[in-house]
Amino acid sequence: MSETKNILLVGVGGQGIILASKVLSKGLVDAGFDVKMSEVHGMAQRGGSVTTQVRYGEKVYSPIIGKGQADILVAFEKMEAMRWIEYLKPNGKLVINNYSIPSVPVLTGQVKYPENIIEELKEKVDTTVIDAANAARELGNIRTQNIIMLGALVKALNITEVNWEEAIRETVKEKYIDINLKAFNRGMELV
Amino acid sequence: MKRLLTGNEAVARGAYEAGVTVASAYPGTPSTEILENIAKYKEIYSEWAPNEKVALEVAIGASIAGARAIAAMKHVGVNVAADPLFTFAYTGVNGGCILVTADDPGMHSSQNEQDNRYYAKSAKLVMLEPSDSQEAKDFVKLGYEISEMFDVPILLRLTTRICHSKTLVELEERQEVEIKEYNKNIAKYVATPANGRILHVKLEEKLKKLEEYSNNTPINKVEFNDKSIGIITSGVAYQYAKEVFGDNASYLKLGMTFPLPKQKIREFAEQVDKLYVIEELEPYLETEIKAMGIDVIGKELIPNIGELNPDIIREALLGEKKEIIEMNSEKIVSRPPTMCAGCPHRGLFYVLSKKKNVVITGDIGCYTLGSAPPLETMDTCICMGASVSAGHGFSKAFEVNGKEAKVFGVIGDSTFFHSGITGLIDIVYNKGNAATIILDNRITGMTGHQENPGTGYTLMGEVTEQIDLVKICEAIGVKHIEVINPLDLEETEKAIDKAINTDEPVVIITKWPCVLKKSPKEEIEEYGLDQRKICTVESDKCKQCKLCLKVGCPAISFEEGIGAIIDDTMCVGCDVCLQVCPFNAIVKVGE
């Protein structure tokens, strides 16, 4: 493969986006790709907008991409999908978690959380909706949403060259390996 | 073995491989993880210093003693360390020494976006600028060679994008470097005017030789492709330029940007038709190259504000714009950073927000978020430590000009040790009446939980003496000192009111551990953290007055017709909302 692929993961602090990106990057490196991963997180420890960009291919230069360049946008939270949709290629894929986390201006009643997000996005772009929260609850740990989303990403982008089980085993804490392997497979099934 | 490392991890690895034995820093985004990673190598003594000036001075001392040493800080930290830095360039080193400056174009978490390349020119320091993690590691190792070869300190400039991006790095073994012999040398290491005058001449001679080195070093690298466009660039801007132009342009990629390789630049310029300088933030290279009489295009097309990216270059130089999916952006609600649910700063700021005729001078830390809605309890925020001293200035200006308002300077524990302490000395010495509130959350919060002199632990995990804030304030001469629990609104309000009605220097210490902190067992017991019960709303008692929303807790939301709702996954039972509710509708779960 010569073309560089661009992946953008977005969501809210605390959702495990950085860990999911680490698994993703580790898998891609082990499969022999040149990989660059960039984290962007604002000042808040929690509750702020968090994004990571992962680029892979034969040779990658810039660690970041601009608008209209992501092959896939994986949104862990609905409104964040809207915020970052400009970064997706017009013919790219959106994988969106049907899950909302209100921000402080919403909580304090200054503004309303936007409605019909998924409907609007579906009109404009190839969209796959994942109910990762329920799937994670069924698995017994709400915090596995991130690896479910990762599984969905891998399936949607059809990345076949990577040993994902090994990447998960080497990245997550030992006692969470089994549940995360299940979560990954569940995510694959949901696409 | 190749591994994905951030630039910060790569710098730490470079220090390890280069045989460094002493490292000191003050935490600050995006530089913090450099020392956190160095601390994992047992061969290196590593520490958090109370501020950047101290960190650099520790590295200078270690270097003169003969050891390879490193100091790391964010860009604004170099301002704090600038005093010793300029003189260190004169004295030179014994063991090699590197100062890392992590600049923050785009101000992801900073109060300005200064370009610290100018420090190299101004202080006359060799500057290296890596463009990815591999170079970050390599340049650290090369930096020690240059430092010892030419007897100069090195400024290694990273930017947020380099610090926090992971790229592949080839790991190598550590090279043990024996401590160099130390010989007392007053003429070299004692910077009196008489010695300094001689040292300055020597430094200028070294810089001439370093320019020769710069012309010949392979880290200043020419890549010839299509010669119709030539690009001179450095740092991460090189990667962006390659992304956009690929093989359709020729490059002069500068890894050493002070002294500049003027001969190499001239030769490169002569061989290409059209010359661009692509650099992030200021026209540092451009100005120097233009001063050589070479015509280049740079900042007339590429902005000097904000973080650079391939898009900006593509649009500015090629006029190309990517097609994008458009959305109704008005629908998207902002997601500003906020004090966490259970943050011990919330109670204090809530009390302060209700006080009339007070001025709050703020500082750099989580508590800067006290300026955000709904609390909006802050009038200024300049730099670390300025809350106390600017507060003093504010109160003096009012006093002299016959105006009345009580001034409160709010500052964190780590920040107080950093540079608040001198401001407090100023208040006492000069008979000020500004009150100082030290928000002691038992850790350095904003940068992600680094130990500090008040926490009782070192960076290397050793138990150490806890510096006692009360005793320090007493020693400075403050007579009115109160230690309060900021989650107790009544106690907090009493302390604030007392301060408002006092005309002598006051210190209020709000002591409660950061809600995200992994407290040691003793702390959990001391504060009864494991006994806490979360809160809930009895909706039949909720009169929908929305007063609880005024505390700005992310765990509390409101639904018309139902009233306030507390998210049980976020609430930690700090009880601030419970104390605020006038109808006792907020209760403890299970009580």
Q: Can you give a write-up of this model?
A:
The complex is a heterodimer of chains A (191) and B (591). Chain A has helices at 17-30, 78-84, 104-107, 117-124, 132-139, 145-157, 164-171, 177-189, and strands at residues 5-12, 34-41, 49-57, 70-75, 88-97, 126-130. The radius of gyration of chain A is 16 Å and the shape is globular. With 191 residues, chain A is an alpha/beta fold. The longest helix of chain A is centred in the first third of the chain and has 14 residues, at 17-30. With 591 residues, chain B is of the alpha/beta class. The model of chain B has no long low-confidence stretch (mean pLDDT 97). Chains A and B meet through helix 1, strand 2, helix 2, helix 3 and helix 4 of A and strand 1, strand 8, helix 10, helix 13 and strand 20 of B.
Labels describing this entry:
heterodimer, A: 191 residues, 6 strands, 39% helix, B: 591 residues, alpha/beta, 22 strands, 36% helix
